[in-house]
TrEMBL record:
GO biological process, one term: polysaccharide biosynthetic process
A GO molecular function held by the record: transaminase activity
Protein name, UniProt field: Unannotated protein
InterPro entries: DegT/StrS_aminotransferase, PyrdxlP-dep_Trfase, PyrdxlP-dep_Trfase_major
Gene3D superfamilies in alphabetical order: Type I PLP-dependent aspartate aminotransferase-like (Major domain)
Length: 394
């Protein structure tokens, strides 16, 4: 009981260095434990409980009118059942070479054939131009698995139109891209499926969890694939896994969603201050057209890897940092499955080697935040005084 009381106390503001890379915003026990009265009363703890249904409806509607949702055990399981439901087995699937390994692992698990593609150097994401190159080498590509890198919510209308015109299925790995503001009009085609993460490292975090959002027809297929492929009649079954989220996860999701909008705005404000701090440094590249993201991290791109490493060394006593997504898929995968790739992966290889993520920590005290910002600024100033001369002939 003493442990429970300890965790029911008010969260403390971060007061010491080095700062963490992640300050989880998982809802307090007190905020969701009361919601669990419903499943205990009904004796329904999984397989389509009322809390899961409520969370699905609430969060799907947040992403646009007429959208449906499927609450699942993780973003990865959500990707797997989406790929299974939309016929990925034995089909070539284009995905970014610059993404988290889970995206690739989902393709393998669903029986697809992954083709690692290069990215646009300004957005760090797949583009129509890069997909055109990939389809010339691999004309059999049938599915595009797009990653919203670092959770940035960019306008994908050109990509959606391209997929429509070429009869390509589009799935979006939106792991960290749950929007801070309600989407009044979703520009995505109704057949496009998005998969979100509710992992503790995400701004809308519950521990482990995921959410798939799409139209009614696709969500029905995905729900079936997430329940072992079982038919309603129980007379037969098709391909599937157990991807369901239980009522405990649903209770945490409902509690987390209640505070997500206000938490998301605080994260956006912190990112805005970081942007103002970093903009004067012309030798680093900041993310562009980020949209209504809730900022899981703040990525900055250096011109050269050694600049990144020296900067990281200078700030290590002040804050933790991490190189997402490194290594890139094609150079980093060492498993036994077959990963194919286009001939030129130079852009994705470069961003993988030169991007460093800083934390987004809106709960910092003013004193700690000022010291954090000052240290970042000083480290960058020192770094480029050293490195500009070293690379002047490059």
């Amino acid at each position: 009981m003493g442990i429970v009381r300890k965790f029911l106390r008010r969260e403390e503001v971060i007061k010491s260095f080095p700062l963490p890379l992640i300050d989880p915003s998982v809802p307090s026990i007190k905020s969701w434990i009361k919601i669990l009265k419903s499943p205990y009363k009904s004796k329904t703890f999984t397989n389509g409980g009322k809390l899961a249904s409520s969370a699905e409806e609430l969060m799907a509607n947040w992403n646009g009118k007429d959208r449906r949702g499927y609450l699942c055990s993780s973003n990865t399981s959500g990707l797997i059942v989406t790929l299974i439901a939309l016929g990925a087995k034995d089909k070539k699937i284009a995905l970014s070479n610059f993404t988290f390994p889970a995206t690739l692992q989902a393709v393998f698990a669903a029986g697809g054939i992954p083709i690692a593609c290069d990215v646009d150097p300004s957005t760090w994401e797949l583009s129509v131009e890069e997909l055109e190159k990939a389809r010339k080498m691999h004309p059999e590509i049938k599915i595009i698995l797009h990653t919203r890198v670092f959770g940035f919510i960019r306008d994908l209308s050109e990509l959606v139109k391209y997929c429509q015109n070429n009869s390509l299925t589009l799935i979006i790995d939106s792991a960290a891209a749950f929007p801070v503001r309600e989407v009044k009009e979703n520009i995505l085609n109704s057949e496009v499926v998005e998969v979100f993460s509710l992992h503790a490292t995400k701004p809308l975090g519950i521990g482990e969890g995921g959410l798939v959002v799409g139209n009614d027809e696709n969500i029905k297929k995905i729900r079936k694939a997430g329940n072992f492929g079982l038919e309603k009649s129980n007379e037969s079954f098709s391909d599937g896994i157990n991807a369901k989220a239980d009522e405990f996860a649903a209770a945490r999701a409902l509690a987390a969603f209640e505070k997500f909008k206000s938490n998301g705005k605080l994260r956006q404000n912190f990112a805005r201050e970081l942007t103002e701090l970093l903009e004067p440094f012309k030798k680093i590249t900041l993310p562009v057209r980020t949209g209504d993201t809730s900022w899981s991290f703040y990525p900055i791109k250096f011109e050269h890897e050694d600049q990144l490493l020296e900067f990281q060394e200078k700030i290590k006593d002040i804050t933790l940092s991490r190189r997402y997504y490194r290594p890139a898929l094609f150079s980093g995968y060492s498993g036994k499955n077959h990963l194919y790739a286009v001939s030129d992966l130079s852009n994705s290889t470069d961003v993988s080697n030169t991007i460093l993520c800083l934390p987004i920590l809106p709960r910092l005290s003013k004193t700690i935040k000022n010291e954090f910002f000052s240290s970042i600024k000083n480290a960058l100033r020192d770094e480029f005084q050293i490195r500009e001369s070293k690379h002047s002939d490059v």
